[in-house]
Design brief:
Blueprint (H helix, E strand, L loop, with lengths): L6 H7 L5 E13 L3 E7 L7 E6 L5 H5 L6 E10 L7 E12 L14 H6 L8 H23 L3 E3 L4 E2 L11 E2 L26 E3 L4 H11 L1 E9 L12 E10 L3 H22 L1 H13 L7 H10 L3 E4 H10 L16 H11 L4 E7 L19 E9 L3 E8 L4 H10 L8 H8 L5 E7 H9 L20
Parallel strand pairs: 3-5, 6-10, 12-13
Antiparallel strand pairs: 1-2, 1-4, 2-3, 4-5, 7-9, 8-9, 10-11, 11-16, 13-14, 14-15, 15-16
Helix pairs in contact: 4-6, 4-7, 4-13, 6-8
Bound molecules: adenosine-5'-triphosphate and magnesium ion.
Adenosine-5'-triphosphate binds next to strand 11, strand 15, strand 16 and helix 13.
């Protein structure tokens, strides 16, 4: 096995006439009179390797009868390819069959539906489509680490089990060792979490932001990149119960600084994908053509976004544009109400056609920790929040400058009826060496959707968790 080369390496490095060993999964076998063609893929790259086996090779009968999905290794000579679109192929001299697949292998025919592939999420990565998506996902993950590392930010692993609700949204999964029927109860009949594992009511984190703020206040700039959980019952194409979030948090920074950071980060994701995943992006274009899905020249659009300024405007300006647009929205755009997906998509897709950064939302729409703007008309108070909206997906980033005044933060927490006690450590940051700071959260799957052009978030994460579904 030590001599095994990935197909990617064979294509990029092997010279005609050299010896090579490839190993992968059989996509198809075509039998001729005295030889057969095996199309082999090992996941290392988009391209398949064509293997030719002559009938004088040992076990030829068995080899030439292999079915789609079988795993084999082939040692042979790299030769010029007769087939079009392929530079080289492998003239196999020795074949090892690692594992056969029979005719019940689910991925037989081309053009299997995305729904069918979701039901076979354990195998779908063996298709050209999901190979492309997951190689791009990898590029975006590496680009994330490289980008923040190069900017001088430190990678923070924030806790997954928490005793607080960062967003105040209450859409959390509980973490408990109690048996639901046997949980001890207090005098009031409520579940007594003081007797639970952590001695308190704990949940899966919806965000790592509050902990990232702590570390930003010592390391200067940090970013998290981890799983987050929301039990929201929204069965949409853009929400998962378990998704990955990238959350930079920066000390001595204001909203404009992180808006700029966000646009540079998104551009970096795009440029790395364009540079490293051309075959994957080309395949996705081809796939959309087969599926009769509008492509809108996706790669050109990505190039355009990489090279253009993001549009920045305030929420108030956005409401004005929406109100005057003449569009028939399901929800009327109104000052004081969160922008709906249809509004976000109108702004990003129709009106500006580049990513849009909307800032300064009404205070009532946003979380307790966002910095309050000053000198505002009563009833029109806003906070230094931003959402980044991209064509095709809608909101991809939510962020803000954080409130750094202890008194303002305390009164906001009280106003919102939240429990100040559990946040004592968060308030300490404003007591000891408080500084202006800001950050944002990017939904990693939304970024993968954006770059790949995939329309359903279930198709850009390996094993999606959604309402009524936690298979695999
Ligand atoms: P949305 O309005 O789309 O539900 P949000 O305002 O709840 O988003 P934030 O709390 O600001 O989102 O989270 C930051 C980012 O995390 C979002 O911009 C989005 O990209 C991503 N995100 C939020 N909820 C989900 C989810 N359930 N599944 C996947 N990504 C999500
Ligand atoms: Mg939400």
């Amino acid at each position: 096995m030590s001599s095994r080369m990935t197909i990617k390496k064979i294509f990029s490095e092997s010279k005609v006439g050299s010896k090579a060993t490839a190993a992968g999964w059989v996509r198809s076998v075509r039998k001729n009179k005295t030889f057969c063609f095996i199309v082999l893929n090992d996941g290392s790259c988009q391209d398949n390797l064509q293997v030719v086996i002559n009938d004088d090779v040992a076990d030829y009968e068995a080899i030439s009868s292999l079915l789609t999905g079988s795993a084999i290794g082939v040692t042979g000579e790299v030769v010029e390819s007769g087939g079009k679109g392929q530079s080289i192929e492998l003239q196999g001299r020795e074949v090892t069959v690692y594992g056969e697949a029979d005719n019940t292998y689910p991925l037989q025919k081309k053009g299997t539906s995305l729904e069918f592939l979701r039901d076979n999420a354990h195998l779908r990565v063996r298709t050209n489509l999901f190979g492309a998506v997951f190689r791009i996902r990898h590029t975006l993950a590496m680009a994330t680490h490289n980008f923040f590392h190069e900017q001088g930010y430190y990678y923070l692993n924030s806790p997954i089990i928490t005793g607080h609700d960062a967003e105040g949204a209450g859409e959390m999964f509980g973490v408990s060792t109690f048996h639901p029927d046997k949980a001890p109860r207090n005098d009031k009949g409520e579940v007594d979490y003081t007797k639970d594992y952590f001695g308190t009511n704990t949940h899966l984190a919806v965000s790592g932001q509050l902990e990232a703020e702590c570390h930003a206040m010592g390391l200067g700039g940090v970013y998290t990149f981890g799983p987050t959980f929301r039990s929201e019952n929204s069965n949409t194409a853009r929400h998962l119960a378990e998704f990955w979030m990238v959350e930079p948090e920066v000390a001595f920074a204001d909203l404009d600084d992180v808006a700029d950071l966000a646009s540079r980060y998104i551009k970096r994701l795009i440029s790395d994908a364009l540079e490293k995943n051309k075959p994957e992006l080309d395949f996705l274009k081809q796939w959309r053509k087969w599926q009769k899905i509008e492509d809108g020249d996706h790669q050109k659009t990505l190039e355009h976004v990489r090279d253009s300024e993001f549009k920045k405007l305030t929420y108030t300006e956005a409401i004005e544009i929406l109100s005057k647009s003449g569009e028939k929205f399901e929800y009327k755009p109104e000052w004081g109400v969160e922008l709906q997906t249809e509004h976000e998509r109108f702004l990003a897709e129709k009106h500006f056609n580049v990513p849009v950064i909307v800032t300064d939302y009404p205070k009532s729409c946003k979380a307790f920790y966002m910095k309050q703007n000053v000198n505002e008309e009563a009833g029109k108070e806003t906070v230094r929040a931003m959402d980044v909206l991209v064509p095709g997906v809608g909101e991809i980033i939510g962020g803000s400058q954080r409130e750094d005044s202890l008194s303002k933060l305390e009164s906001r927490i009280e106003e919102m009826g939240m429990d100040k006690e559990v946040l004592w450590w968060y308030l300490d940051l404003r007591k000891y060496g408080s500084v202006p700071h800001a950050g944002f959260g990017l939904g990693f799957e939304r970024a993968v959707m954006y770059v790949t052009g995939m329309k359903n978030i279930r198709d850009v994460i390996a094993f999606p968790r959604t309402p009524k579904s936690a298979d695999f």
